[in-house]
Specification:
Blueprint (H helix, E strand, L loop, with lengths): L1 H48 L14 H11 L11 E6 L2 H10 L11 E8 L6 H18 L3 E2 L2 E2 L4 H11 L5 E10 L22
Antiparallel strand pairs: 1-2, 2-5, 3-5, 4-5
């Protein structure tokens, strides 16, 4: 009789452990699903809230950690045949930023930004470097948004005068061409997002 009670007790304990294990697994699965949902929402939020920022707090520098994160995100971009023909020039020198601001008609905000990145392409590696470098630029802009900073894409390529101004300012080699200059920093004042969604531009199967 005693052995029978012991067996019953053990079975009950095993059943309780099984119930606890099942509940734990369900809880972890629910936590994982919530975490994945949160990640998806965050990614989509960053994409949808990306904006062009042209006004910066000049006295507030961007941290080295954030600069590294931005560059790393840029270099995570897709590349045709995985050639990765990009080069990224990080500019924090006030004199260089001011000189470029004076020469580039659509990048006057460089005079207030504490930092700029020039996304360049190696023409000796790829004839379509500007496509890969455009993907790099978009990744940089999204990383900037995620870090609660601000930035704006100002074109150098394909305008010869702008490209020459950038080439001379940062002394680029002959085979390295600038796609764009990205002033960045902490936004000054309120920045508004444009809703660019246009259903009329969506076409399924046929035009």
């Amino acid at each position: 009789m005693k052995n029978k009670r012991v067996i019953i007790y053990q079975v009950i304990c095993l059943l309780l452990l099984l119930v606890v294990a099942v509940l734990y697994v369900r809880q972890q699965r629910g936590t994982t699903e919530k975490s994945m949902t949160s990640v998806k929402e965050t990614v989509l939020s960053v994409i949808n809230n990306r904006k062009s920022v042209r006004d910066f707090i000049p006295t507030k520098p961007v941290s080295k950690e954030d600069i590294e994160s931005i560059v790393k995100a840029g270099m995570a971009a897709p590349s045709g045949k995985d050639i990765r023909p990009w080069e990224i020039v990080v500019i924090e020198d006030r004199a260089v930023l001011d000189a470029m601001a004076a020469q580039l008609p659509h990048a006057k905000m460089l005079a207030q930004s504490p930092l700029a990145m020039v996304v360049c392409g190696d023409t000796s590696q790829s004839s379509y470097w500007y496509l890969d470098c455009s993907a790099v630029t978009e990744n940089i802009l999204l990383a900037v948004e995620a870090l609660e900073l601000g930035a704006v894409w100002t074109a150098a390529y394909p305008y010869e005068d702008r490209m020459n101004a950038v080439i001379q300012s940062i002394n680029l080699p002959e085979h390295i061409l600038p796609l764009c200059v990205i002033p960045m920093g902490y936004p000054k004042g309120e920045q508004k997002v444009k809703d660019k969604y246009d259903e009329s531009k969506i076409h399924h199967n046929k035009w």
